[in-house]
TrEMBL record:
<dbReference type="Pfam" id="PF13279">
    <property type="entry name" value="4HBT_2"/>
</dbReference>
<dbReference type="InterPro" id="IPR050563">
    <property type="entry name" value="4-hydroxybenzoyl-CoA_TE"/>
</dbReference>
<dbReference type="GO" id="GO:0016787">
    <property type="term" value="F:hydrolase activity"/>
</dbReference>
<protein>
    <submittedName>
        <fullName>Acyl-CoA thioesterase</fullName>
        <ecNumber>3.1.2.-</ecNumber>
    </submittedName>
</protein>
<dbReference type="InterPro" id="IPR029069">
    <property type="entry name" value="HotDog_dom_sf"/>
</dbReference>
<keyword id="KW-0378">Hydrolase</keyword>
Length: 278
């Protein structure tokens, strides 16, 4: 962990978890033989793109000198895609404390043609060494269109957001969604005293690569569900009418004193409910 990883609550920010997962994934490919140094075009550490992230945040992670460990393994190998699972944890007094579990769907990618490709026999064999199959559950569909209640946030791509292939890195999408979500919540609760929220779940589909350019992209976010202790915010990142990414985020109202979920006063919930699509 780095000091800069923390947010205003003193927790490791939800975006940073995804950065940790990326580091674990690249380490798996490079340090354990899944990286094809003899043929960079088949190097899964460099030539695979994220299709979907599903991240469940189970407990707040605070700063400390004790390292965070990540177990990473393969759960499914398909013709042109594979799925990795992760568990982010620490060992404390002989007990395993799990902070997050996640899954990432990836596909090998030919950047010269901007198209996915099939896994090679060598790649399939290499990934099979880390395979722990599990039954594939029904994947919850993410939003394909936005309601009239959606709030707009211009996404300005920074030069540092872009990887060596000219695409915005998958982790940066979580930043864009966070910025759009903060803008939405700030407007909804304007005039009310600040209250704390944490992210419990984030699901993101990556549809079309976001590229560096001077013009901003459009992020639209809206309230899709309101409970007593949590709410769901859905988002789309668009280029005109083209969907670049779609997401669903579950936020939880949080008591900093007890470090547990809490029910906020009714005015906060009422303002969220007023934004629910009819």
């Amino acid at each position: 962990m780095r000091w800069a990883d923390l947010d205003v609550l003193g927790h490791v920010n939800n975006v940073v978890y995804v950065d940790y997962l990326q580091e674990a994934r690249v380490d798996l490919f490079r340090a354990n033989g899944a990286s094809r140094i003899d043929d960079p075009a088949d190097d899964l550490a460099e030539a695979a793109v994220v299709v979907r992230h599903e991240v469940s945040y189970l407990a707040p992670l605070t700063f400390g000198s004790r390292p965070v460990s990540i177990d990473c393994w393969v759960t499914e190998i398909r013709v042109a895609a594979f799925t990795l699972a992760y568990e982010l944890f620490q060992e404390r007094d002989g007990e395993r404390v799990v902070y997050a579990r996640a899954k990432t769907v990836l596909t090998p990618y030919v950047f010269a043609t901007e198209r996915p490709r099939r896994l090679s026999p060598v790649e399939r064999e290499t990934l099979s060494a880390y395979l722990e199959p599990e039954e594939r559950g029904a994947r919850v569909a993410l939003p394909a269109s936005r309601p009239e209640t959606a709030a707009h946030y211009p996404v300005q791509v920074r030069f540092s957001d872009v990887d060596v292939y000219g695409h915005v890195n998958n982790v940066k999408y979580f930043e864009y969604l966070q910025e759009a979500r903060i803008r939405l919540i700030g407007e909804v609760w304007k005039g009310l005293d600040p209250i704390s929220i944490v992210v419990a779940q984030t699901d993101v589909d990556y549809r079309v690569p976001i590229l560096f350019r001077p013009e901003a992209y459009d992020a639209w976010s809206w309230v899709a569900r309101v409970g007593t202790r949590s709410a769901t915010i859905e988002s789309l990142i668009l280029d005109g009418e083209t969907v670049l990414a779609r997401a669903r985020v579950t936020i939880v109202f949080f008591d900093q004193h007890t470090q547990r979920s809490t029910q906020p006063p009714e005015p906060y919930l009422d303002r969220l409910r007023a934004l629910l699509p009819s």
